[in-house]
Design a protein that fits this description.
Elements: H1 12-20, H2 25-37, H3 39-68, H4 70-85
Helix pairs in contact: 1-3, 2-3, 3-4
Bound molecules: zinc ion.
């Protein structure tokens, strides 16, 4: 169970919002202070940051291809092309 993230109760949403930049003011300050002191929330925060950076680097198309697999993605694109023709 070492690899699973278990932030404090009620902290998942605030940490998510801090990572995507939609948290402001006293809440942003509070959550930032908390993740710097709390090992469990800190690990979650770092993992979410890494995930966001990774998605940004490879771009959304690449992310979609990785999620679905290139073959499956190609077959979906082919199906869409076919639909457009008919
Ligand atoms: Zn915590």
């Amino acid at each position: 169970m070492k690899d699973t993230f278990a932030p404090c109760p009620g902290m998942v949403n605030p940490i998510n919002r801090l990572v995507d930049g939609s948290l402001h003011g006293i809440w942003a300050w509070y959550v930032r202070a908390h993740v710097s002191r709390c090992a469990r929330c800190g690990a979650t925060y770092k993992a979410l940051l890494k995930l966001r950076e990774g998605l940004r680097k490879i771009g959304q198309d690449e992310a979609a291809k990785r999620l679905l697999g290139e073959d499956r993605w190609n077959s979906i694109e082919a199906a869409c092309d076919h639909k457009n023709l008919s």
